[in-house]
Amino acid sequence: MKSLLMIGLASIAMTSNVAFASADLAKAKNCMACHAVANKVVGPAYKDIATKYAGQKDAEDKLTQKVLKGGSGVWGAVPMPANAQVNEAEARTLVKWILSVK
Q: What CATH code is carried by the domain that includes residue 45?
């Protein structure tokens, strides 16, 4: 029983660290210049992105490519530029975090 509790606590700690690390990564990669967690800035709020793509099996791959290459038309007329300062692993980490935002 004690070991199950320790495993559960370790799992929660790792999940929390990933969430904080991803928010920090979003700040470090300048994502927060155009996005915020709860409200629209230039681009959509992360919670709105998570809601829009919830349950879509290809969302992680699709959004990773949008982070890397940019895109337009999904959220209005303002295009999202490509993010040359973000590598694919970082983009995937960011997208996993974004999709987990409630």
A: 1.10.760.10
The answer to whether residues 34 and 49 touch, using CB atoms and an 8 Å cutoff, is no
pTM: 0.79
Residue listed under structure tokens 């007329």? 77
For helices 88-100 and 2-28, angle between their N-to-C axes, nearest 10 degrees: 110
pLDDT, the chain, mean: 85
Range of the domain at 59: 2-100
pLDDT tens track for 27-66: 999 999 999 999 999 999 999 999 999 999 999 999 999 9
Burial 48-74 (b: 16+ CB within 10 A, else e): bbbeebeeeeebbeebbebbbeebeee
Rounded to 10 degrees, the C-alpha dihedral 88/93/94/97 comes to: 160
